[in-house]
Structure of asparagine synthase (glutamine-hydrolyzing):
Amino acid sequence: MCGFAGFLDASKECTRDQLASDALAMAGCLRHRGPDDEGVWVDPAAGIALGHRRLSIVDLSASGHQPMESAGGRYVVAYNGEVYNFPALRRELEGTGHRFRGHSDTEILLAAVEEWGVAPAVRRLVGMFAFALWDRRERALFLCRDRLGEKPLYYGWMGGSFLFGSELKALRAHPAWRGEVDRDALALYMRHAYIPAPYSIHREVRKLQPGTILELRGASPGTLPAPVPYWTMEEVVARGAADPFRGSEEEAAAELERLLRDAVAQQMVADVPLGAFLSGGVDSSAIVALMQAQSARPVRTFTLGFHEPGFNEAEHARAVAEHLGTEHTELYVTADEARGVIPLLPGLYDEPFADSSQIPTFLVARLARSSVTVSLSGDGGDELFGGYNRYFQGRRIWNSTRWMPGPLRASAAGLVSAVSPGSWDRIGSRLRQPQLADRARKLAGVLGAATPEAVYSHLVSSWTDPVSIVRGAQEPPTPVTDSARRPEMDDFTERMMYLDTVTYLAEDILTKVDRAAMGVALETRVPFLHHPVVEFAWRLPLEMKVRGGQGKRVLRRVLYRHVPRALIERPKVGFAVPVDRWLRGPLREWAEELLDERRLNEEGFLRPAPIRSLWRQHLRGERNAQQALWCVLMFQAWLEASRAGAPGRRSAGPPPAVCGPGAR
C-alpha cells in the first residue's frame, strides 16, 4: 500500500529540477501512506513527473522501489495497492520469456502491460489498485482504478498542468493549484454525507470512477477524455441475471466458502505482520474464521470497545475470538478519546466526509497498527448479501403503504413524527432496538414517498432537499436520483443493493477505511470485494440473501460452519458513536461556533435559516438531527481547515535520487 502523485506539464518548459522538486512536494504530502521509501521519476522532454511514497508489504527490498520502469524501458508506473494473483501472473509471464529482478507485484504489473497492453492486463488483475502509467514511446498517460473503488485516485487540470494523486492534499501541493469549491458537489455531499465520483469538492478536480481507465495523450489543457470502463457492476448484474445459480442453498454456501477461502488465502500473503478487524458481527467473524482455518498460528484480531450503552460490541467480538482461538486485542476508549479524533478529520479526508463512524474506524486502525501492518476487514458483506435493515424494511414499508392515498400516507407520517425522539428511544430500549428514534424519523419520511426509488432516496439522504441549503447549487444526477444511470432491475431490494454497491460502498465505506487506515500507515484488505465473490453474489437468487426479515442468509450458513449461531444472532448495531448526545453536551460550543448565523452568511455557501432551525430542534430534543448536522459541521470544519492550513511538507532528510531519461 502506498501513495503516489504526479503531473504532466503541457508546456514542457519545466527543468528536471523543477519537475523533481514539485513531484517530491506532492508525494511528500502522502508520507502517512508510505513511510518506508520515496522516489521520483521525471522526463523534461515529455513534461512528465511521477512521485511515490512506499509502505513496504511484499518484497521489502529495494527491488520494489517506485516509480518503477518496465524491463524493456517503455513503461513507468507509480502504483498503490496489491495485485493478489501476482504469483500466478508471474508464472504465466515467465512462460512467455519474461525475467524478473525481484518479487514485487509492481514488476508483474509492468510485465503484464508489456505483454498484453494496458486494458487487457488490467482485466487480468485480481486485487485493489490505483496507478499512473506513463508510456514513453507513445507519450501517453494512463490512470487506472480497481473494480470496486478500494484505492482512490484524483485528477484534473490546473492551468497548463494535469495533476493526479492518491489524495487531494498532494494536488494542493503543486504550484499551479487553484481550487474552487464546487457548489453542485456540495449539494451532493449534503444528501449523501460524501461526494460521489466523479465529483470532488473542487470544481477543477475529478475522482476516477471505479473500474475505469483514463488515457491522456497529446495533452490539451482543460480537455479531459472520458474514462473507459473495463469492468462494471451493470455488466455483473446482467450476467448474473442471464446465468443464475441453480443449485440448493447448501450448494451455494459451499461455493461461496470456496471463493471466500481463496480470497482470504490470497489476501493473507504479506512479508509483514498481518491481522484483522473483528466486531463480532457476521461479516468480520466470517473473514476471521476463514483466516484462522488457513493459519498455522493464531490470527491477530482487533476490537474497539465503548463504555457508552448501546454502542459497544467488544464483548461479542471477544466471544468470537475466544471460540476461534485468535490472538485478540481490545481497547476500550473514553468519549473524550473518541472526540479527540474530530480535529484530525479534515486533514485525514481532504474533502467533506460525514460518516461519523470515521471516528471509531480511525481508532481501531490505530490500535491495529500498533501490532500489524496489514489488516483484513469484513466490509462489503452488507451490500453483496443483503445485510442492511433497509433492504427488508424499505421493501416492507413500500409494500404496506403503496396502496394508501397520498393524504392518508401524510397523516400516518404525521403521527410517527408526533412522538418525541426520547419516547422512541425509551420504546427502543425496552425492545432492544437501539437508535429507534432515528428509524422512526426515517419511517415518517418514507411514508410520503410516491415510488420505491423515492423510498430509497429518502432512506439514504442526510438532507432530502440539499439545494435548499446550498446557495447557488444544482444537484447533479447520480444513480440514486436518475433512473437512466442504473440498470433495469425488477426487484426493489436488488435495486437498493445495486445502488449501495456503486455509491455508498465505494464512496463512503471504502473511503472511510482507506483514509482512516492509511492515516496511520495501515494497509486494509477486503476479501468480500474479491471480484469473483462479487460476481457470484449477483448470480444468487435474492431469497438466498434476504428472506423472512433477515439478511445474509447464505453467508450465515458459511459462518455457522465455524462459529456457533448463538454467538452471532443479535440485533445489528453498527460501528457508531453517540454524536447526537455529544452535540447537546461536550461538542455544543464547537458546533455553535461553526453554525453561527453571521459566519454562515459571510462564508456564503450555506443558508443559515434551515440549519439554525434544525440545530434548535436538536438541542431541545425534538429531533435527533445528528446526521444532517454532522454533514454541515464536517463541511464547516473542512472549510476552516482548508483556509487556515497549508499542504503537507516533505519529511526531513536527504532527497531521493531522481530517475528518468538523462538522470545521473
